[in-house]
Structures are given as structure tokens and as C-alpha cells.
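pasting for ref
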Amino acid sequence: MLKRKLVFYRWASLAGRDPFDPPAVARRLTQEISADSSCQMVDKDGVITAVEVVEPGGGGDPVKFRVLALRGMEDRPFKWDPDSSIGPISLLANEYPADATHISIWPDGYCAHDMGRYSPRLSRLAFFLRQRMREYVSFDPLYDEDAFRKLKEMEGQFRSFDLAMTKPEYATRPRGTFGHLWPAVAGEELPSVRVSMGMGRYGPKDKYIDQHIEDELLELATQASDLLTGMVVRGRSKRTNRVEMVNLLTDRLNVEVDLPQRSDIPSAPQVSSVFYELEQAYKDFKRRDVFETVSTAELMRKG
């Protein structure tokens, strides 16, 4: 059995763009792939992404995708054994090492995928749809109730934050304040950068990060699937008066499951089992009204 987290998001069309229609996009992609199999791949600046349509959905059923992060020639792993050291892994010209995730997109604005150690995130799908289909969609993270409560309680009293960010060209939204840290901190050529900012352990206890920076952080949290590889915020709780911490990449709304392996690929789960578990988790959250107050979009509503 393979341990996976089923991680949930809220999806939405981007302002100023045509409404995102998942079943229509899936059907169009299926047609394009049938005519030309290369249409299921996008290779841009060394980032290679492939998307398979498992089921096009419609009529209330979810759209089901498999998204793969592929490794090009310069990024491929090699094999090793203790007698002959390292060597190449034999692949044909049209074959790639790949890491995969399975995504269900429901018509009511929610979606989820199975997350393993090396699984691609939903940013891969957003990037693929933008580049290949000229379709624009955002995937906003949902947080468990404890993390959401802590964020509300420390609102206006953020003390520090730690960010790890990928190259901003792959984000689906404008860079904003923190996107401009690239030229200021590391130059435009680096694909990622880590930043820590705050009042400091020995700084005044009653001083907090400026409100406009806090607002930027909360907005950036809604883009976490597109831009961030790490985000931890710390702030003083109005309820406990203690400094609390929230990891906005791990404290997500999720369910842990054990999935049966494929007999031919022990590191891959059985596809039918993944989508079954995604559907069961979705139905359970809907039944218990879990989706109602767990989005960072709620944190951005003032008043």
C-alpha cells in the first residue's frame, strides 16, 4: 500500500478571462490529443509537463486528469549498484522519467489531488492549461480548521514569515510585492529563492509587520500552488497572547489514505482507487460542511 494525502483546493476562473469550463476544456484537450499526441505535453524553459484526460466529466460528475512532471535529458536520474557504480537508465527517445498526480475537479468549485513525496502540484495543471489551451484557472488552497483559526486570531499581528519561492514566470497571477524580490535578492536568473523577514526574536514585543505587507502575504497564500514551495507565518494570537505558527503548505485541508499499488509499477497507485478515495473524501467534506470556512479567500474579506 502507498501512503498519500488527498489535498483539497478551491478553483475559480480568473478575472478578465473567459469562464473556465472543466468538462469543455477536457473534451477539447481529448480531441486535440487524438489528432496529435504531442498536444498532451508542454516544454517551456526546461519545465516539461504532460496531462492525460482520464474522464471528461460533465453532468455533475468531476473531470479527472492525470498530470505528470517529466524529466528532460539534463534532469534525468541515473542508476547505481555497488559493483559498477553509476550508469544510465535506458529509455527510448520518446520516454521520460515521470512523477504523477491524479486530479478531480468538481463543478461546484472544489478540486483535489493525491499528494506523494514527489507528486507535481496543481500549478503544473494551471501552467499546462495556460500554455497549451489558453485557459486560465486559479487553484486556491484550503486549510484545516485549526490553521484557519490561528490565522484569523493573529490577523493584524504578524511577527515574521519564511518564504521559499519558485521562478515567478510560472505563476498564473501578477508578481505583486514579493515577486519583485527576485531582482532585489537573487537576480532574474535563479529559479528559486528563500526569504525570511520579521521583527526578530529580540525586537519589540508590540511591533508587527506592516498591514500592507500582511495583506500581500495573505494574497500570496492564495497563490501558494502557483508560486510557493514553502511558506511559514508567525504572529501573536489575540486569544492566547502567544506567538503561533502556521505552515501554509502543510496545514492544508487533506485526508491521509492508503492506496493499493499497481502490480507493474509498485511506486504508482491504482488509478481507480485514487479517484474512488478522492470522491469519498469530497462527499464526506460536503456532508459535514467542512468546505464552508477554510479558504484563504475568507481571510481576505475585511470587516
